[in-house]
Amino acid sequence: MPLSFPIIKCSGTPKDVGRQHGEAAKHQIAGSIDAYKTLFKEMAGLDWPQALEIAADFEAKLLPNFLEELEGVAEGAGVPLLHIVALNCRSEIALTAPLDGCTAFSLRTKNGVQWLSQNWDWKPSVLDSLIILDIAPYESRPGMKFVTEAGIIGKIGFNSFGVGVTLNAIRAPSLDRSLLPLHLFLRLLLTQPSVSTALDIISTLPGIASTCHILVADPKTAVGLECSPHGFAFLKPGETSGVLSHTNHFLDEKIRDSNNAVLLWQDSPARLELVDARASSLVKSGNKVAASSLRNILSDRSLGSVGICRHDSATKNGSDTLFSISMNLSSKEAEVKCGKPDEAGDLIKFSFQT
């Protein structure tokens, strides 16, 4: 049977959404918890009780809607709330460890179509815990469809307004437990009707709890957010290419230095140069761009096992590409390739088209 991710449909209040998520993904959530018990120990030297102590610091400061949804997930999955909080703070708990890699880019075609795409690279031990959450609109909340690790309520995908997000981990010792964890920040961005409103929200925040890069785009534009507890740096697409690419290191010197960021992935600059060149070449060619065009870029193995399509999990601190996603934000359509983009695995398509 080919690799696939279950699609879990949720609707109603935050508590309803969480409960439906927890009930439908009970098995996968148990797998997420087991995987991170091992990963926290192996990569950060933390036992599960120590991880829960860090999670407790975050729980006390969560936004009410987020806390309500996390309570629903815990209730539906039949696990303690703090276990679900720990999953949603997993990047902050594993602060000193190498985190998920990833290569992401946005491009705008010559006829004005906005695309957003990424490979998500991480440990194969979490592969069986990946799901697609399909959350229906409710009151002011838009519809959302995104790939995530079961139990985590924000990750990589887009909403019914055509606002999409991708994620690149960046290693730095900066941490502020009073701020929003990065996965919940992703969820906050997925509630926004445009990049402009997302930037308005960001202007009110001092930063987020840990370091990362998030590429956020809508049908009109894209912006790169280099995020940290010390604030944000903003990146724009190339003026002529319409391309904005990112891997796993800060590009803004000020934010890099203020967070003492480490170039953990020595291949990150080479991946960035390669993906940017390939995406720019695609736009310049004037050829019709489709999700398959972007998947072709994400399948690039020219840099070997640590290239755009990553396959070095057999090495210490290594990882593999576990899925790729390509989003046409102009038409509100997306495809997810389960597993590596050039290997066997289901191709799941979804949209917000009426």
Can you give keywords for this protein?
single chain, 354 residues, alpha+beta, 8-stranded mixed β-sheet, 6-stranded antiparallel β-sheet, 11 helices, 14 strands, 33% helix, globular
Would you mind describing this structure in some detail?
- The strands form 2 sheets. An 8-stranded mixed sheet has the order 1-4-5-6-7-8-9-10. It has a 6-stranded antiparallel sheet with strand order 11-2-3-12-13-14, covered by helices on one side.
- α10 runs antiparallel to α11 (291-298).
- It is built from 11 helices and 14 strands.
- It is α+β, with helices and mostly antiparallel strands.
- The longest helix is centred in the first third of the chain and has 19 residues, at 26-44.
Briefly, what is this?
The chain has about 350 residues and is α+β, with helices and mostly antiparallel strands. The protein has helices spanning about 15-25, 25-45, 50-60, 65-75, 80-90, 90-95, 180-190, 195-200, 255-260, 270-285, 290-300, and strands at about 5-10, 105-110, 115-120, 130-135, 145-150, 155-160, 165-170, 210-215, 220-230, 230-235, 245, 320-330, 335-340, 345-350.
Regions with little confidence, pLDDT below 50 for 5+ residues = none
Query: Total strand count, please?
Result: 14
Q: Helical percent range?
A: 25-40%
Strands side by side in the biggest sheet: 1-4-5-6-7-8-9-10
Terminus-to-terminus distance: 31 Å
Task: Please specify the SSE layout and strand pairing.
Layout: E1 7-10, H1 14-24, H2 26-44, H3 48-59, H4 64-77, H5 81-88, H6 90-93, E2 103-108, E3 114-122, E4 130-135, E5 144-149, E6 156-159, E7 164-169, H7 182-189, H8 195-202, E8 212-217, E9 222-228, E10 231-235, E11 243-246, H9 253-258, H10 268-285, H11 291-298, E12 320-328, E13 333-338, E14 347-351
Parallel strand pairs: 1-4
Antiparallel strand pairs: 2-3, 2-11, 3-12, 4-5, 5-6, 6-7, 7-8, 8-9, 9-10, 12-13, 13-14
Helix pairs in contact: 1-4, 3-5, 4-5, 10-11
